[in-house]
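Hi W.,

Here's what went into the run:
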Amino acid sequence: MKVSKLLGERFKNAPSDCLIDSHKLMVRGGYMKYMANGIYSLFMPTKRITRKIENIIREEMDKIDGQEVMFPVVMPANLWRKSGRYDSIGSEMARFTDRNNNDMVLGMTHEEAAVHLAKDTAQSYADYPFMIYQIQTKFRDEPRSRGGLIRVREFTMKDAYSFHTSQEDLEEYYQKCFTAYERIFKRAGAKNVIPVKSDSGMMGGSVSHEFMLLADIGEDTLAICSECDFKANMEAAPCIVENISGDVQPLEKIFTPDIKTIDDLHKFLDCDTKQFGKAVVYQKNSDDSYVVVFVRGDLEVNETKLRNYLGVDIHPAQDIVTEECGIVPGFIGPVNLTDKAVVVYDKSLEGINALVCGANEKDYHYKGINIRRDVGEVTYVDVAKTFEGAICPVCGKHSVTIKKGIEVGNIFQLGTKYTKAMNMTYLDNKGQAQYPIMGCYGIGVGRLAASICEESHDDYGPIWPISIAPWQVEICNLRAKDDNVSAECEKLYQHLMDLGIEVLYDDRAVRPGFMFADADLFGIPVRVVISPKTLEKNCYEISFRDKSFKGEIPVENAPAQIKAMVEKLLSEYNL
Amino acid sequence: MKVSKLLGERFKNAPSDCLIDSHKLMVRGGYMKYMANGIYSLFMPTKRITRKIENIIREEMDKIDGQEVMFPVVMPANLWRKSGRYDSIGSEMARFTDRNNNDMVLGMTHEEAAVHLAKDTAQSYADYPFMIYQIQTKFRDEPRSRGGLIRVREFTMKDAYSFHTSQEDLEEYYQKCFTAYERIFKRAGAKNVIPVKSDSGMMGGSVSHEFMLLADIGEDTLAICSECDFKANMEAAPCIVENISGDVQPLEKIFTPDIKTIDDLHKFLDCDTKQFGKAVVYQKNSDDSYVVVFVRGDLEVNETKLRNYLGVDIHPAQDIVTEECGIVPGFIGPVNLTDKAVVVYDKSLEGINALVCGANEKDYHYKGINIRRDVGEVTYVDVAKTFEGAICPVCGKHSVTIKKGIEVGNIFQLGTKYTKAMNMTYLDNKGQAQYPIMGCYGIGVGRLAASICEESHDDYGPIWPISIAPWQVEICNLRAKDDNVSAECEKLYQHLMDLGIEVLYDDRAVRPGFMFADADLFGIPVRVVISPKTLEKNCYEISFRDKSFKGEIPVENAPAQIKAMVEKLLSEYNL
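Here's what came out:
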């Protein structure tokens, strides 16, 4: 490809709404064009990058016996009604009515479609296991699209669905897919991807993992043990703390005028926040009824863990916490609390003999609360956020660290949720009808491309790994108006292409600084610079985008040498 | 791939709503599964076929300097408002409102998106010409989806858009693309694809061609000259007839009781229908006002030609042709016709000195109508359907033949319709702002696959050309319970795959008749049968799906021989 004919412009500066590096560089580099909130068109370089990623994914899916299929983007609502998700998913799902007044949806995931395709065709246990996958456009009406291709509304995704006759078989396949994912990310050149245990969310199912590319701009928060293998999304990480039980004390009501926050109370009483019981109030989405969570004063509630425990959707309580409801903001405590609220006790309070909490009365707190004595037997559950230095649930050391990550892939053990709902059965070896057990496995293609840019760039542009780079070699013609230089460039361009090398040739008559700035934005691994000066010395100047090499090679035999360089770079990604 | 693990079932019979052969065979063969009207999921074999077609298309598009890009499926309505098509396209376009109440559409074509992507980035004449294309899902809410993948609502399409600074440059590129299309269809193994001149329809623009795969079940009717190169869609084919002018006669009103049709009139008057002026009544969609078309008694009106001439949308008049409107059904004629209707005279009436037409009065016709004398000077336009034996507009012989075809591709010279509407300009070499001139070029991938099946099958299944066949070789293990036979099959399977051959291996313990019926439905070009009998003779049995070869080859050296066969077959499609 010649740059003079390549559609797309490079810019010195990014628009001010590009907040993260990869977004800035991919807009500046002519990789994408904004069309609407979370909707982009992709220029040729991005299409080449994503196609390479897709091919890597396809090869790895085929290696674990995946069958590539194609599901529709537009599906009838009835299919989603069968699984219950037509109603349980909210405005994230785009819906429309077709010309015959049928309700239709745009696919945001394809469990229903996978079961629809497999149903009636895999009727004997002998047909199992199998896995089907597709690489296709999905639409999710995200409330907050951000970060360029990191979080968009329309995206290309590889989604795979496996079907099994036993949990053991699912687990075995799950492990295979786990390994395939590790290979995919390595081959695509993502350096810092780690698998973490995750919450299964709207997919249903139990065991699941997310593959997280570690990055400060990541939306996900991860708990990672520095001493052992424990790695989990915050939402799936138990919060384990050691409590100092302390002495049993008498229950004592104290006057705490206008002392409504833990901070105020800490200053007022001059005691450790670990002795406080903090109340956090939520409301159920369904009926706005209250949920009061007590957690140790120094900790926070993790809403997803709370949501999973309650089994219903909730939101933080608004200003509508009124006295009629029996809840006194700033002075909430377990003793004499209204019975209209659901009360949840976090594990962090278990075993503390004397707690300070609100007295459910304006300007008063209790000291010396002993939950068993003053409230009765309660169940303690884990709904707190873990934190830097918390106890690792696996090795037991105070070694939890907190990191940020971008979710680039996920794998779920779904169980029979969808096969049951859609009545897909097979006959087992005793002739009994059984529901197949499913797993599902996703990778966001565009997000992976942008994430790799996020971890692999400098101030001047992306540094694409050669396995997904839009082109392998860029030729920079530093004197396009010099016929001799241009002829030499054109010869090398043709020669390299004949050798099967992917070449971008910058044939424009522009200043060297301008050309090099563009080359940095293209992020091509191998750069060949040709100028009157290099030709005088009868050589080309070669440099790698990642700065690991810079030197001159003689013109004679240059194509073979460049090819060897490309092959050596590629070999690092051939697992 | 082993058949025992391949998802999808083969059937003896097709559902009764499968009306055409390719649809029947692709349902019977486990190629696709119906999800909703015009919406299908595709099993692995179909995905493999369409991917091969896509790769052929991609290679040919890249050869003519195409840049592969990616446009969104979901687009903001505002983009389509700019071109005017948000309003001009009806219920074929799916529309929905997103969570923020923005009107969105599902792309049915991407002219607007192409201009959006190219606008502001190709600002100098030196940046031209260029072509961008994508291969992606489209949704068109067809009123009548039919024929399996031939006419669906959701489909994969290659759509390309070229931009030029002069009409000459567009024409030159148009010709390149024309040739690329011919190569694509040949390489994909479509035998009977011909380019025909076409009507540009909703795309706008002037010159356009459709690539038609000739097939009796085709929805398009084509006029093809048997003597010269003339080929056109009926909608774009001039209807040329020779009139016998005859003698001038006096105008005479005749009593024709209850004689309302041309047939009745022909019997009643016993004269040639070529002397009749037939009236056909339409109404404008906008206001239901009437359009009366006069055409020679033996001819029919082509609605598209009429629509293009009028420049507005029309429909055949309903029963609502009432006397108040001045139109007397069955007795309509040009003399004394109400002035409330738009009147159109077809060229077939030009020069006839004495016509028989209705008298605009119940039970009366006129004889001897001379339009110039009795009505005045009128304009004759071409709105009639051409027919078998009509005069060829190119060579002038009576050599027009009528064929049916499936449109598998189309190319349009769009002009500046979209660049003007969306205000995309570049500076020419004099520094003046100009609108780029566009061309656009489409191929339906799934439709092409189904069309090839339609022209290349027998009663038992598809006969896939090897260039797009889901696999190149099928191994049939005729005695899967025989360890010796199975080991031999497995060995060959692995060996062929190691040689880079795509192999489907039927490893199931089923009766030979059952296995062969399935093999016919798979339609794989080369079949290798292994049984105790063939192994006794130390050979394999080879046959081609198209019946052009059947024979035995010795086990020793078989893989290399099979590879040579595959390569020879493939070479026929390497242009």
